[in-house]
Specification:
homodimer, Methane Monooxygenase Hydroxylase, Chain G, domain 1, four-stranded antiparallel beta sheet, 40% helix, ligase activity (chains A, B)
Chain lengths: 377, 377
Amino acid sequence: MDERAYFERLDSTASDPAELFEHFEQRSVGGRTTHVLPSARHGIERGTVILDAADAIVRGYPSIPRVLALDAGVTSFFESGESIFAEEKLDGFNVRVADVGDEGPLAFTRGGYVCPYTTARVRDLLDLGEFFATHPEMMLCAELIGPETPYTTHDYAEVDSDAIRVFDVRDRESAVPLAVSERRELCVRYDFPQPRLFGRYDRSEATEEIWSAIEELDADGREGVVMKTADSDSMVKYTTESKHHDELADAFSLPFDLGRDFVFSRITREVFQAAEFDESDERLRERAHDLGESILLPAVETVRRIESGETVGQRHRVRGGHDDIDALLDHLRDLSLTIEVEADYRENGQRVVEFLKVAESTVDRTTYYLEGGTYDE
Amino acid sequence: MDERAYFERLDSTASDPAELFEHFEQRSVGGRTTHVLPSARHGIERGTVILDAADAIVRGYPSIPRVLALDAGVTSFFESGESIFAEEKLDGFNVRVADVGDEGPLAFTRGGYVCPYTTARVRDLLDLGEFFATHPEMMLCAELIGPETPYTTHDYAEVDSDAIRVFDVRDRESAVPLAVSERRELCVRYDFPQPRLFGRYDRSEATEEIWSAIEELDADGREGVVMKTADSDSMVKYTTESKHHDELADAFSLPFDLGRDFVFSRITREVFQAAEFDESDERLRERAHDLGESILLPAVETVRRIESGETVGQRHRVRGGHDDIDALLDHLRDLSLTIEVEADYRENGQRVVEFLKVAESTVDRTTYYLEGGTYDE
């Protein structure tokens, strides 16, 4: 690979190619060689992929900063007089869809892998041919949502199995996004489903409007809001109480796999939201009780399940073509996950597979403690 | 210092003096030069101190392992037929008192520092002269408890200001403990107050007896139990729900100083205790609500205090001689703590000082978020 040429195209903050490319790792999957940046470096996003054979760059999706204090965050993050677009943030699996090489469009995960299952789903759910014929230089940034995905299982009233929402469209090589209005029109034109737009607000009214959106989303058990400048170049997120509690409940159903990493940050979000918006002691206490239940109840259930001999982990159901699902299971095993297939059948002409991603640490640590194992502090 | 000679005396698992002594650090405080092991290495306890001028070794107090599942822990930790002594574990400040050199007995902290305040307190509260005249090779392992100490503030009904409890007596150089009965008799002989002995149990009855002790301690807001073999050589601890919740409440009153490190381990203790002993859903939910309140309420209060301009931290009140208290404040500042003296007056012939250990991280991070600061995930 011509590092000098890619270095010029990537326009990073590194001072020479070696400084940047020492952080890339080469991966060969399914006859495809990629160079991937596994974590953000020198101004280049995590998951940025170089496909040398196609002479193509697919930039990673940037990490969206979060505010903990909504009103102060809105005021400090946006300029006075600037419009703030608020769109719904969905709880799903973030992929970038790009048409590189001659295999047809591919779905790249946050970590820079090509997911064969999501690739098949986006090809099925979106009319990509027409879009990429006109916009070969673009990538669609999309969320795979719904109860039947291999990664997330959050239920949306409007999604039976799975669905795609396009929330950003960017230049694949420079990562420059389309402006919000332009992107939303483009998605309408190509019939790409997109997340709800709550509105375009002046900074002075934004907190009130966004808090009201958050309350509505919270009541429906939905995740939160992304606020963007009109050019889509700056964005910041804010999430609901129910999202925090759901994440804690998921994490503490597998405490030694997810609990440790999740707990402090989610509690912190709760603390600042409560300090800003919980006006009565009663409201605050109710939030505290829900928080405690989110942490303790799933963890106790998991301990009891393991005690009775069950294997625990994350359960998923996926449906699609026979080979797409084989490719998915191979992909997950390549990522070193332990997969137990619990059901594999056909329904309405499709293959349906239910599987468990085994939570090895939770099973091992819990068993150790249940057998009387000690830990030293 | 003659490393070879100390190496032989320490009887570590290191293969040569260099391998062991590279982990020691030299400290000079108040004209006293010590070599201290800041964390456990090669079978030698954290806080082990060598005082070369006195040709003395003061071994650290070992970290006591903890069981999460009481019944399984008792069964796997102790041998069948072995007696198990259960003593109360107190919530205070652990020191070792040793008579080395010609300054009189000194109180060494867990980290291997000499605390001038605790030294003054143990000299005042215990009749050390007679003890060390007979047992110069021993060290007293003691807990400084009560609401008026510079380190902990836990209230005990029986302690007005502060008090000492001797819970172990060991050979200062080999760390070999006296047997439980022998130590308890010795403490009676020298009139050293000691923690409560719940009893001596056969392994088959221990869980039931200890759980009943835990329930009694929990109702009184006390910490827990240490179980020991008769020779005191093996020990394991188990703590109450109220202790877990109190610790979380303390930690989350200063979330960015203490919360992050404390939260996961305390939740884990709660989870296993609940899985073992919370028989009804109602009891489990009550524990969950208390857990949630312990986490959320103090943290929200702290955020609101910082928002209104207060400085937060740990508040302590100490009383003693004028110079002892000066030495304490110097000692704390030497440890890089930020100390704000809030009151300094005389009462019943003693100097009383109230001070705040400022929680710098909590003040800084909270202020940053309250001003709209973002974090990137």
